Structures are given as structure tokens and as C-alpha cells.
Amino acid sequence: SQQGEEDPQALSIQEGENATMNCSYKTSINNLQWYRQNSGRGLVHLILIRSNEREKHSGRLRVTLDTSKKSSSLLITASRAADTASYFCATDEAPSGGGADGLTFGKGTHLIIQP
Amino acid sequence: NAGVTQTPKFQVLKTGQSMTLQCAQDMNHEYMSWYRQDPGMGLRLIHYSVGAGITDQGEVPNGYNVSRSTTEDFPLRLLSAAPSQTSVYFCASRSGTEETQYFGPGTRLLVL
Predict the structure, then answer these.
(1) What is the pLDDT of residues A40-78, one digit of tens each?
(2) Whole-angstrom Cα distance, residue A100 to residue A85?
(3) How many beta-carbon contacts under 8 Å exist across A and B?
(4) Which of B40, B57, B38 minimizes the C-alpha distance to B48?
């Protein structure tokens, strides 16, 4: 079963605007990560936030985590055409039937930046 | 460093055939994992390894075998390919001291 669920499934904005994606999860976690996937490529790690953190920044990225609501958001400011990609949240909680390692991913948000 | 490499990039199989997807990493990472990604889905964990000689099942292990004879290599074997195994397969690795996973470029598998 999928742990994280991203919202929206797809997002199209103009270059220069901010993009916000949300992720919800179901069980307790130690950390939550966001990954980016360009079309036809592997995933690239963007940022990790631990369960005892509420907000984290990295360049144009801002991640928040609300453990009481089991949700996280990823904000990309001043978007660029190169930000066009799919974005996935991933938690360290083992999926049902899974084991002690590996990440549980959501279905992703497909972000399109219009020039 | 080459990071995580996967071969082949693309493979077509007939139902019932077997094959091995190769994965190697040169970062001396203890942990390695295999995921599959289906259209419109996130990645699902197939098998993982926490070190040489140690493997365990993930969320969707049926139809796949793995072994970890060295730290560097983590091959995924399809015993008898089925159309339901048509997917993109990603290998990932991480060190034991950080949670960030490093992904390979993927193998696209089509089972006819």
C-alpha cells in the first residue's frame, strides 16, 4: 500500500510563480523526503525533514512537516522551466508486508512550468 | 564516481523467460534496494539488502529473487516473466549513516 499521497496529481503554472505540492501519510515516521524525477530518469533526492522538524529550506525549496496532521508540503519558489518534473514524497515507514528498510513513495505530483 | 549503474536500459522478454537486471554502486553503500514504478504510480519496494549476504522482501517480492554476494552488486532476477512485470525498475543505494537514497537510471522492461 502507498504511504504518501501527493496532492495535486498534476500542476501547471507560469514560470516565475510558486508551486506548492502536498503529501499526506498514514503512520508514524522518522523522516520524510522529497524526490524529483525528470521524464525517463531516476529519482533525485531534494530534501529530507525529520519528524522533530517543522520547516526546512534548501535554495528555492521550502518543506514543512505537520506530524499531527501527518502531512507535508513542498514549496518551490520562483519556478523555472527546468523545474518541470514529477515530485514524490517518501517516508521511512515500512509498507505493509515490507521490512525494515526501503522507502514508501506516494504517486507523485507532475509539475509543468509554462514558459 | 559512477554512482548507481543499471543494465540493461531496456529489455523485451516473452512470457516465461527469465532474466537478471544488474545493479552496481561504487559508493561503498551498505544498503541497496530494488523498486518498480508503474504508470501513474510511485515506486514500490521489491527487495532490499542491508549488507552483503543479507536480503529481505519488500512490498511486492513475488516473482523476483535477489542476492547480495558483494557490497557493490545487487542483481534482481525474474524467474519466469509475466506481463504484469512490465514496468520500470530502479535500483537504489544508501549508506548506513544517512537516509538519502541514490537511484540508478532505471531499466525499462516489457514482457509480451
Answers:
(1) 889 999 999 999 999 999 999 999 999 999 999 999 999
(2) 29
(3) 79
(4) B57
